[in-house]
Design goal:
With about 210 residues, the protein is an all-alpha fold. It has one domain. The protein is about 80% helix and about 0% strand. The chain has 10 helices and no strands.
Amino acid sequence: MDVQASIASFAVVVGFLTITPGLDTALILRTSLLSGRGHAWAVALGIQAGTLLWGTLAGAGLAALLAASSLAYEILRWAGAAYLVWMGARMLWQSRRSGEEEAAEAERPRGGRWQAFRRGLLTNLLNPKVGVFYVAMLPQFMPHDAPPALMGTLLAGVHVGEGLLWSALLIGFTGLVRGWLRRPSVRRGIDRLTGLVVVGFGLRLAVQQS
């Protein structure tokens, strides 16, 4: 398989993965609806930075430790589960605010863009399933004569490009309906729904076996 065929085949696989509803989509939608486009793009860039790093590490063989070492996988799995449960629980706690508190909160910024970027980055990097996905998938799309680290980065770049395109569609859609969805009662509902989704992903990660 040559480089162009490898890239095209990988693009199809991760394209379906990208548009499948999941944690990344939920975080981007929530951030765009409640904090605006700038923060949503910061979250999206953080997520994609994590994807690019996982692809590079997998191409270099470093992420294979997750597949070879059950201890390394378990440490990362429990750290990721704890982070997701904490983040989701925080959203659920914030949804308990009254309408007056919610209206006052809407007038204040919800953290900086660096904080949003870090949230997306940590969500991706603390998910060992992303690393295992790249360890399992990249060898199938690696031409024999291609440098592994470089090819891993290139394929991850394809994944990042598709992820950014999907993020642009999500953020553009929320821009059309943000006025209605930023009502206090709707904002609380978004926090509750997203909090439950994030906690669910955290619990699912905690109970799954390596």
